[in-house]
Amino acid sequence: MSPPMSQLSNTWTFFADHRAEILGATLDHLVLVLVAMTIAILIGVPLGMFIVQRPALRTIALGVASIFQTIPSLALFGFLIPIPFIGGIGKRTAIVALVLYALLPILRNTYVGLTGIDPAVLESAEAMGMTRSQILFRVRLPLALAVILAGIRTATIITIGVATIAAAIGAGGLGSFIFRGVALVSDALILAGAIPAALLAILADVLLGLLERRLKVT
Amino acid sequence: MITKTANLPETLIEFRDVAFHINDIPARIIVSGISLTIPHGETFVLLGRSGSGKTTLLRLINGMLLPTKGEVRVQDRPTAEWDPIRLRRGIGYVIQEAGLFPHFTVAENVALVPTLENWDALRTAARVQELLHLVGLDPREFSHRRPRELSGGQRQRVGVARALAADPPILLMDEPFGALDPVTRAELQREFSTLARRLGKTIVFVTHDLREAMLLASRIVLLQAGSIVVSATPQEFLRLDHPEVRAFTSSLSVLPGAPA
């Protein structure tokens, strides 16, 4: 038997032996991602709607969100630990970091979606006597939905990946297998974290992609 | 069709020495020295080259722009004093690409202003049916289509129906047939000129096409570089001796060698 084959069977045995543990970590991971994404959407979408009306704030908001994206994820987790209230070791700090990461794609796509609407549509909406909020909620938002969702989709995939690193600050999830695997030089352990994380990302991509296509207005 | 003509003043729209500059910079004059009286029931055609200020005049009427100098009065009230929402709900607006809402059906598009005005559903539905017939679209076939499922001409028909929905006394049209193929354009121009006469609306129509102006206008106002150079009936217009008028009349002779 070649080494890769034996490794594969090792991994398979490990998976079979630790089913419950892997499933538990996957659920932990999923909760982490869902909580972070919910918060990021609740901040990103309204903020995106707000900066459409306030061009002065646009550069600042998009700039700050971009800065968070440029900080390496491990460093961002590290930076947050000493900060009072939001910092420390554990899930809360991890969620704050994940939200900061997910914000840019959501915020940017919300802004782009709301502003990228056919000018003739907006002109006739205004000329027809629609108020600003009617234009926002009845015209801009429904027409931007697919683009906003594309941002949420990107952010979700990023978050699923970055959340594995959150284990480094004790947030649990699939990353804990990976970190243990790296420390113990065990491929089986690394894969026990990596494979479910990859599957989650693919699943999220496919499902949100389907939803995005349904919402698209041409 | 009911038109509320009884309580309307004789002069529906009036420009009193209006100027408009971008961002209040006098150097960037878009239009200036505009004085115009548009009586009830007329079809005023604003004719001019691109950039002559036609669209600006249109947008000054429905308060999408406010004059930098002078005043624009609609129904004897300056646009600056109108609540812009109320003003615009009483003015139909048709633009070149129709600007239909892509996420609405044809019926929902036509019903837009009645819906904003909280008409009850039955009255709105009846009105949509009536209007689709009026613009030559069978409601059974077109009500539930989306704008992307229509031809350019059909979209413009829906655009006209939408503008007429709440029976506004004023209709503003900004090159509504400009993006259509020549055959469809001629068809819509003919139908619209009949429709306009029947409806008795006050129409301000922007175009750069003299042929279209001749067909529709009760009065042609020629603009050049933001000023009115000529205001005349179509019959008078052709006989005028003005360089910009000649520029337009000579554009009518499309065949080489044909007399203007």
Q: What layout of secondary structure does this protein have?
A:
The complex is a heterodimer of chains A (218) and B (260).
Chain A (H helix, E strand, L loop, with lengths): L2 H15 L1 H35 L1 H16 L2 H8 L10 H25 L3 H9 L4 H34 L9 H10 L2 H29 L3
Chain B lengths: L10 E11 L7 E11 L3 E6 L5 H8 L7 E6 L2 E2 L5 H6 L1 E5 L10 H5 L1 H5 L4 H14 L4 H4 L9 H13 L5 E5 L7 H18 L2 E6 L2 H7 L2 E6 L2 E6 L1 H6 L3 H8 L10
Parallel strand pairs in B: 3-8, 3-9, 6-7, 7-8
Antiparallel strand pairs in B: 1-2, 1-4, 4-5, 9-10
Helix pairs in contact in B: 5-7
Task: Describe this structure as you would to a colleague.
Chain A is mostly helical. Chain A has one domain: MetI-like fold. Chain A is built from 9 helices and no strands. Chain A has helices at 3-17, 19-53, 55-70, 73-80, 91-115, 119-127, 132-165, 175-184, 187-215. Chain A starts with a helix and ends with a helix. Chain B contains 11 helices and 10 strands. Chain B has helices spanning 54-61, 84-89, 106-110, 112-116, 121-134, 139-142, 152-164, 182-199, 210-216, 234-239, 243-250, and strands spanning 11-21, 29-39, 43-48, 69-74, 77-78, 91-95, 170-174, 202-207, 219-224, 227-232. The radius of gyration of chain B is 19 Å and the shape is globular. The termini of chain B are far apart. Chain A binds chain B through residues 118, 120-131, 134, 139, 142-143, 217-218, and chain B through 62, 64, 84-89, 91, 93, 95-103, 112-113, 116, 148, 159, 162, 172.
